[in-house]
């Protein structure tokens, strides 16, 4: 499933970029993410993370890497292993003293175990709705 979500955040673009470009902030705003550990000391493209999530089929781990980075403008995270393969690209654009954040994503229900695997298309639709809620939480954090 491919999707695009956009919202305006009442915060400076540099603050929004810094927050979303640091995958370790995800447990604060992404409901399924329980913990994120940075692997190694790399920064920028190639930085890897181990992500611990709660999925419909139970706990899951993914290894994720920054695969594209345009400082202050865009960052792309790609899962390298684990269930529900995904690519998330966050784009940041200034908008009259605020920030327009766009998430372009691709995600699959592939790798979900047991009965959850049979719910693939439904799980993907629920994911998009949940992701919109997660971005709302992100905006609330950054607008304080």
3D structure, described in words:
With 144 residues, this protein is of the alpha+beta class. The termini are far apart. It has a single domain (2-142), classed as Alpha-D-Glucose-1,6-Bisphosphate, Chain A, domain 4. It is globular. It has helices at 13-20, 26-29, 114-118, 120-142, and strands at 2-9, 33-39, 48-55, 58-70, 74-81, 86-95, 98-107. A 7-stranded antiparallel beta sheet has the order 1-7-6-5-4-3-2. Helices cover 28% and strands 44% of the residues.
Relevant terms:
single chain, 144 residues, alpha+beta, Alpha-D-Glucose-1,6-Bisphosphate, Chain A, domain 4, 7-stranded antiparallel sheet, 28% helix
| Order of strands, widest sheet | 1-7-6-5-4-3-2
In DSSP terms, counting alpha (H) and pi (I) runs of 4 or more, how many helices? 4
The CATH topology is given as Alpha-D-Glucose-1,6-Bisphosphate, Chain A, domain 4
Give me the strand/helix succession: EHHEEEEEEHH
Give the biggest sheet.
7 strands, antiparallel
CATH class: Alpha Beta
Global structural class: alpha+beta
Task: Note the beta-strand portion.
Answer: 35-45%
Q: Number of DSSP strands? A: 7
User: Over all CA atoms, what is the radius of gyration?
Assistant: 15 Å
Assign the CATH architecture.
2-Layer Sandwich
How far apart are the first and last residues' alpha carbons, in Å? 33 Å
């Amino acid at each position: 499933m491919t999707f695009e979500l956009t919202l305006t955040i009442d915060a400076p673009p540099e603050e929004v970029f810094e927050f979303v470009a640091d995958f370790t902030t995800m447990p604060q705003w992404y409901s399924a993410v329980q913990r994120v550990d940075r692997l190694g000391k790399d920064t920028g493209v190639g930085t890897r993370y181990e992500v611990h999530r709660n999925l419909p089929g139970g706990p899951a781990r993914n290894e994720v890497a920054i695969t594209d980075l345009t400082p202050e403008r865009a960052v792309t995270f790609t899962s390298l292993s684990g269930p529900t393969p995904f690519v998330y690209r966050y784009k940041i654009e200034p908008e009259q003293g605020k920030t327009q954040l766009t998430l372009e994503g691709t995600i699959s229900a592939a790798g979900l175990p047991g009965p959850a695997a049979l719910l693939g298309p439904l799980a993907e639709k629920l994911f998009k709705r949940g992701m919109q809620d997660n971005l709302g939480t992100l905006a609330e954090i950054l607008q304080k």
